[in-house]
Design goal:
Length: about 230
């Protein structure tokens, strides 16, 4: 076991889905996987391993924000040798032509987190998704008829931030804001692993538009299928 995950070696698959919310991890395991075994309940940050279309897949809650996801993905890669990591989450749109219920694939993740500066001695590093996973998710999303967008997302340290200049970020092409992907991409690069973030747009930061919980669930399910298809190909 590692500090925050009680699984024994071998109990976690080499490919993993990473929702922020541990109850989403439970939902994904119960709804989409077969032969499920729960491997973690430390801090109620649930983790499960099962199969999807015969392939072994795990799903692990990460919590919210860079420090929390950094803990889980580091332990997953370092202690459990996980190779492919796919975040499945939500984001707030900041472009006028990005709508709630769209699905965004994060090609790169800009950030105001200090993580990259700390790790790379102040370098303005560009955290980037794995192209192979991105391509597979894009193809699966297109085949499923989703409204897909691919591009630069912003990993914010603060959910509540009066000072944030969302319009400025939008002017530089940022599609949407979330709180974890830059850490996932940077750490996956450090460990030479494959990582991708797939996000449903749950709210529009500029227009205030939001999805109903029923709509959120439907889009979320569509996104999970895309993530699983990308994971097993
Ligand atoms: N900000 C940060 N993260 C988010 C948001 C947001 O508005 N919506 C969903 N995740």
């Amino acid at each position: 076991m590692s500090v925050h995950i009680s699984a024994k070696k071998g109990e976690i698959a080499d490919t993993i889905l990473l929702p922020g919310d541990p109850l989403r991890a439970k939902y994904i395991a119960e709804t989409f996987l077969e032969d499920v075994v729960q491997y973690n309940e430390v801090r109620n940050m649930f983790g499960y391993t099962g199969t999807y279309k015969g392939k072994r897949i795990s799903v692990q809650g990460t919590g919210m924000g860079v420090p929390s996801i950094a803990i889980y993905v580091t332990e997953l890669m370092q202690e459990y040798d996980v190779q492919k990591l796919i975040r499945v989450g939500t984001c707030g749109a900041i472009q006028k032509d990005v709508k709630v219920r769209d699905v965004i694939i994060g090609q790169s993740a800009s950030t105001d987190s200090s993580l990259n500066k700390v790790l790379l001695n102040d370098l303005a590093y560009a955290p980037t998704a794995d192209f192979d996973l991105l391509y597979k998710a894009y193809e699966a999303g297109k085949a499923a008829g989703l409204n897909l967008r691919v591009g630069n997302i912003f990993t914010a340290d603060l959910f509540y931030n009066d000072e944030a200049d969302y319009k400025k970020w939008a002017d530089y092409g940022i599609l949407a804001v979330e709180m974890e992907s830059a850490a996932l991409y940077t750490l996956a690069a450090k460990f030479n692993r494959q990582a991708l973030s797939i996000l449903t747009v749950s709210d529009h930061i500029l227009t205030g538009e939001a999805t109903s919980s029923e709509e959120r669930q439907t889009t979320f399910n569509d996104m999970i299928v895309v993530a699983l298809e990308a994971a097993i190909q």
